[in-house]
Amino acid sequence: MDEGFPLFGDGIPSDVKTGVSRCGPERRPEKCWNPWHGCRKYSEGCRHCYVYRIDGRHGKDASAVGKNKDFTLPVRKNRRGDYKIPTGCMLYTCFSSDFFLDEADGWRPEAWKMMRLRSDVNFFLTTKRIVRAARCLPADWGKGYPNVTIACTVENQRAADERTGAYLAIPQAYRMIICEPLLGRIKFSSLDGIGKVTAGGESGPEARVCDYAWILDIRGQCAEAGVSFSFKQTGANFRKDGRLYRIPRPKQHSQAVKAGVDLDFRP
């Protein structure tokens, strides 16, 4: 195993240069909102879940699902009567659990109400449980809340086959598929209706290998379909051209950026 750097130069590799620009970061306030904590492992992508890893360090049982004290964070106000979460903020939602976990069925309706009330805030949530999401949507969902994005996570071909159809059946203005941790090659039957795909390897001491060929394959499917793509991180164990690299956590995102393979098809 090689720990040498850099894996990628500062420019775009000649074999993947297409003339399509990289997605640039959007500058806006960002915060996290975890209305509940804890989760049950659901599929292969959950094997080395970071929530379990972090809770384990503190002697906590990550499979115990509980409502957090910050449950009402989106609607809390300061002494001046202003919302503590400012207008225009991107609120990353339920990243220490799964928003569509069945143990949270009793709490979710109130969470939806807060999202609807704070229409000036953008809520971004990811789920592996997209197959049960349709029955968990609020009655007034319609074509989707314009300030809420539900992203679907798929880690391998089996997950993609099981979840993509269910995801496309949920009405919303913008859809994103997240292939993290990417555990194998994925061939999508169709990317129609998808706005963006992101892909990246697994972090942590027990991380499984992510192969750069899998990343480029997904990128190629996105390029053909006119779908934006982002290579988010190499993961801890990254294979490129048959050579295996052990990538320290601080380098995993920067090395992905240096690959220069992101695509931006936004109008």
Features of this protein?
single chain; 267 residues; alpha/beta; 7-stranded parallel β-sheet; 3-stranded mixed β-sheet
In a few lines, what is going on in this structure?
The chain is α/β, with parallel strands linked by helices and 267 residues long.
Order of helices and strands: EEHEEHEEHEEEHEEEH
Total domains? 1
Indicate the overall shape.
Answer: globular
Distance between the termini: 42 Å
What share of the residues lie within helices? 10-25%
Sheet with most strands: strand arrangement: 1-4-5-6-7-8-10
> How many β-strand stretches?
12
Rg calc? 19 Å
Please outline the major beta sheet.
7 strands, parallel
Q: Approximately how much beta-strand content do the residues carry?
A: 15-25%
Report mean pLDDT, rounded to a whole number: 92
Structural class: alpha/beta
Number of helices: 5
Uncertain regions: pLDDT < 50 for 5+ in a row? 10-26
Provide the fold topology:
Blueprint: E1 30-33, E2 36-37, H1 50-57, E3 66-67, E4 90-93, H2 108-117, E5 122-127, E6 148-153, H3 157-168, E7 176-179, E8 196-200, E9 210-211, H4 212-225, E10 228-233, E11 237-240, E12 243-246, H5 249-259
Parallel strand pairs: 1-4, 4-5, 5-6, 6-7, 7-8, 8-10, 9-11
Antiparallel strand pairs: 2-3, 11-12
